[in-house]
UniProtKB/TrEMBL annotation, chain A:
Keywords: Capsid protein, Virion. It comes from Ureibacillus chungkukjangi. It holds the Pfam family CotJB. Residues 11-86 form the Protein CotJB domain. This is Spore coat protein JB.
TrEMBL record, chain B:
It comes from the Bacteria. This is Spore coat protein JA. It comes from Ureibacillus chungkukjangi. InterPro entries: Spore_coat_CotJA (IPR020256). Keywords: Capsid protein, Virion.
TrEMBL record, chain C:
InterPro entries: Ferritin-like, Ferritin-like_SF, Mn_catalase, Mn_catalase_dom. Its cofactor is Mn(2+); Ca(2+). The keyword Calcium applies. GO terms for molecular function: metal ion binding. It comes from Ureibacillus chungkukjangi. It holds the Pfam family Mn_catalase. Ca(2+) binds at D59. The keyword Metal-binding applies. Mn(2+) binds at E35, E64, H67, E135, H168. This is Spore coat protein JC.
């Protein structure tokens, strides 16, 4: 896994990080505001967008999640990509 | 409207060995003033939110004190 | 169960090889008010807290693990290619002789993490007040770290983490409001 990640990797990653951050914020907010209909709608829409970005990311770079939440290429590439503390 | 830093003037004695800091400050971030977050507050864009560390400008707390030009205790 | 997602919550960057900063940052890795303590505290309190706020403790615990990973990333990058001489010069020779570059759960003074840093009292108000205090203490630690760090990229990450403590404190305060709400009693009695 000596290969470098291209600049596009960092850009795509940050787009996902931004959407997933909105999801974390809305999630904690909804934990104490469980009747906020608009926030729930925004949460669901953002979740959908995030999933779409992750499908694209995984096609281009590497699987994001373990234990069957992401598909692997051949050969097994769930471990064969740099780890978050390395990139 | 609240402020995010409070200032106080500590006693300065003639025998204090270090150069006195005449005005000291401490942080009073926004969660201290919001009992329960009201619904529908204005939001940052996702990119801005990630950079700020919160989705809501009203919960954003800058540090160090911007009034002090980045000098935290001066 | 838990799944791992191969990404950080926030893009952590480090400008310079600076092992001394790693020595200070480790306070938030294995210190009393650090991310490990936070994650384990909420993760453990969630079993016995009233149902209305279990979700919040669970989710904040999860986020704290993401913060632990961010702090670890900073420490890892700050020391990764430092020579033993640089480690000694930075004042972490004592860490080096015991752990080489490996991270370890201790605070900035080298005191190993202990469960006595955290509490689970079983009384929801007592537990949530501890949680609020823990968030404010973590916020303060990030302030003092920002004060002594001159790495702009590290400070960017630390500012993010400090802001998260503000939001967590907000949510725990709301949890107290939910639990003390008189209106809910009427529905049940
Ligand atoms: Fe926190």
């Amino acid at each position: 896994m000596a290969k470098q990640m291209p600049p596009e990797y960092y850009q795509c990653l940050e787009e996902i990080q931004a959407l997933d951050f909105v999801l974390v914020e809305l999630n904690l907010y909804l934990d104490t505001h469980n009747h906020d209909f608009d926030a729930i709608q925004q949460f669901n829409e953002t979740a959908k967008l995030s999933m779409q970005l992750k499908v694209e990311f995984e096609k281009k770079f590497h699987p994001l999640m373990n234990f069957g939440r992401s598909y692997s290429n051949y050969p097994w590439n769930i471990d064969d990509s740099p780890w978050p503390w390395q990139v | 409207m609240f402020t995010q830093f409070k200032y106080w003037k500590p006693f300065v004695g003639p025998f204090d060995p270090c150069k006195p800091i005449r005005v000291k400050s401490y942080s009073t971030p926004p969660q201290l003033y919001m009992n329960f977050q009201p619904p529908g507050l204005p939001q940052f864009t996702p990119q801005e939110a990630l950079m700020a560390g919160t989705l809501w400008p009203q919960l954003y707390s800058p540090y160090p004190d911007p009034q002090k030009g980045g000098n935290p205790h001066g | 169960m838990f799944y791992y997602e191969k990404k950080l919550q926030y893009p952590v960057r480090v400008s310079t090889c600076n092992p001394m900063l790693a020595k200070f940052l480790i306070e938030q890795y294995g210190g009393a008010d650090g991310e490990l303590a936070a994650a384990l505290r909420y993760m453990n309190q969630r079993y016995t807290i009233p149902d209305k706020v279990i979700g919040l403790l669970n989710d904040i615990a999860m986020e704290e693990f993401s913060h632990l990973e961010m702090i670890a990333t900073m420490i890892y990058k700050l020391t990764k290619d430092a020579t033993p001489e640089q480690m000694v010069a930075a004042g972490i020779g004592d860490h080096y002789v015991n752990h080489d570059k490996a991270l370890f759960y201790h605070n900035a003074a080298g005191v190993p993490w202990t469960a006595s840093y955290i509490q689970a009292k079983g009384d929801p108000i007592a537990d949530l007040y501890e949680d609020i205090a823990a968030e404010e203490k973590a916020r303060a630690t990030y302030q003092w770290l920002i004060d002594i760090s001159d790495d702009p990229d590290i400070n960017d990450g630390l500012r993010f983490l400090r802001e998260r403590e503000v939001v967590h404190s907000m949510r725990f305060r709301e949890a107290v409001e939910i639990l003390k709400d008189e209106q809910n009693q009427k529905k049940f009695f």
